[in-house]
Design goal:
Helix content is 38%, strand content 16%. With 279 residues, it is an alpha/beta fold. The strands form 2 sheets. Strands 5-4-6-7-8-10-11 form a 7-stranded mixed sheet, sandwiched between helices. A 4-stranded parallel sheet has the order 1-2-3-9, with helices on one face. α1 crosses α8.
Length: 279
């Protein structure tokens, strides 16, 4: 469980479950759809309920593997409307990110998606495509990539080769890899390339003196998921709610005016009252 998002989710579930007296069992599928379904099938034999975080397997395979054991999905597709789902809704934050980059003079954006089986990655890619088109920004897709620093490193050369002046990465880990890889190629951030991540994990505040990122409420997703599961285990509503958790852009030091803008001396634009937020 090396991804800090999953670690934070697990810790938040554990803290919420502790007062209820529930022991917790964890399984990490490491991007394997087969292993994921096996974990669901195995754990459902003994567990009273399951939380499936960012599943990669087909939702119907997960449903069958659960075998009637109540479960909740975090950030993934569900087999039917009876399965509760907690969604990290990145669209508000991404909308702010695209607007932010447009205000800085960027007209060519690269996006680095995550793993091809990731429901979240597919959704984020479609959101970025739609928003870029709405703002008349040229978009280059570089991926899919692993949702890791290595994935970002692998994408860095292709990102630089696109000629884009800004890049949004699937998550902060990928953004960190892009930053490092671009730097090795002589591409300075943010002077030559503005970089934005997603999630706002702990290290983001110190990465490159502060990574501009779309903050999601990862910890709350675990708490809400467990509350939904406890309700389902107690015979709660049969229609599973879809609970979106909003996002926001946190502006730090990895975004600046496009190098194609003549005057690069002005400060980064900011907005208040629901707009861009300083980190």
């Amino acid at each position: 469980m090396t991804n800090p998002v999953y670690a934070l989710t697990a810790c938040s579930i554990l803290e919420r479950a502790r007062p209820e007296g529930f022991p917790m069992l964890f399984g990490c599928s490491d991007e394997s759809q087969v292993r994921e379904v096996d974990y669901v099938r195995s754990l459902s034999q003994d567990a009273e309920g399951l939380i499936v975080c960012s599943p990669r397997a087909d939702p119907h395979d997960i449903f069958e593997a659960a075998g009637g054991t109540p479960y909740v999905v975090i950030n993934g597709a569900v087999a039917n409307d009876e399965i509760p789902c907690v969604v990290l809704d990145v669209e508000p934050g991404l909308a702010q990110a695209i607007e932010h980059l447009r205000a800085l003079g960027h007209r060519h954006l690269a996006y680095v998606p995550g793993p091809p089986a990731s429901w979240a990655s597919k959704g984020r890619t479609e959101i970025v495509k739609r928003l870029a088109a709405a703002w008349s920004i040229e978009l280059s897709i570089v991926g899919p990539q692993a949702a890791t620093i290595r994935g970002g490193l692998a994408a860095a050369a292709a990102v630089v080769a696109t000629g884009a002046t800004a890049v949004i990465a699937y998550n902060d880990l990928v953004a960190a890899g892009v930053l490092s890889g671009a730097s090795r190629l002589g591409c300075a951030c943010p002077q030559d390339l503005s970089v934005i991540g997603i999630d706002d994990v702990d290290f983001s505040a110190i990465l490159a003196s502060g990574l501009t990122t779309v903050r999601t409420d990862v910890a709350k997703s675990g708490v809400v998921a467990l509350e939904l599961l406890l309700d389902r285990m107690d015979g709660g509503a049969h229609n599973g709610p879809r609970v979106p958790l909003p996002s926001e852009l946190i502006v730090r030091n990895t975004t600046a005016r496009s190098p194609h803008v003549a005057d690069n001396s002005h400060p980064t634009p900011s907005m208040t009252a629901g707009g861009l937020l300083p980190g």
